[in-house]
Amino acid sequence: VEPPQGFFRDDTALNGIRLLCNKQGIVTSSEGLWGEWLPAKDCGRTARIVSFRLRVEQPRGLRDDTAANDAEFACSDGTVLEGGGGTRGSWGNWSGSCLPGLGVCGLRTLVEAPQRSRDDTGLNSAVPFCCA
């Protein structure tokens, strides 16, 4: 996540999503160039991520756009993990939930390439994949 850059600088907000799989493997989405990884959060030893949603800012015309700002993840035990990203935009719907016994094990993401002197947004969309 890139923190707010101030009034005259370009903000991108959410630039990537990383999943830690049973603390043994890592799945990382495509990544924008800006920001830092926030501390990891987990569902607990026996639960899995089964759904997520993004906070997305709609296009603002000539004003600074950020697209995806934050993410929340639903665990199979009912816990919701808050991403800790930006506050611009509004929450979208939760993704479809993985079937019982399955969890999110991958992501397909849409990340905008750097726009040089134009407005950058970073991560724009994500679709989860479920597996055992």
TrEMBL record:
The gene is Vmo1_0. This is VMO1 protein. GO terms for cellular component: extracellular space. It comes from the Eukaryota. InterPro entries: VOMI, VOMI_sf.
